[in-house]
């Protein structure tokens, strides 16, 4: 499996890794290792958010509510369908 990354972004990640490695006296990690760690961190954060903030995304709320129903704890269900409590979608602009 591969991940396509803009060359400038990969260079930025490699530069930061070189700085971090020099600061603690170790060899910089290979770019492939950096990307693996970045993707892993992101996915672990998604998994963490399902439990710590299931209202942050409608899919999380549905998954959480299904789990609550399966475990016989409907009182722990959260609102779903609109991402209640999450950030509203942007109305334009670059961010």
How are the SSEs placed, and which strands pair?
Elements: H1 7-24, H2 31-52, H3 58-70
Rg, nearest Å: 19 Å
- Which geometry do the CA atoms define? elongated
Number of strands: 0
Average pLDDT figure: 85
- The ordered H/E elements are HHH
Query: Sheet with the most strands?
Result: none
Distance between the termini: 29 Å
Low-pLDDT segments? 82-86
* Strand residue content: under 5%
Q: Count of helices? A: 3
Report helical residue fraction: 55-70%
Structural class: mainly alpha
Explain what this protein looks like in three dimensions.
The chain has helices at 7-24, 31-52, 58-70. The chain is built from 3 helices and no strands. Helices cover 56% and strands 0% of the residues. It is elongated, with a radius of gyration of 19 Å. The two termini are 29 Å apart. The model is unreliable at 82-86 (pLDDT under 50). The relative contact order is 0.09. It is mainly α and 95 residues long.
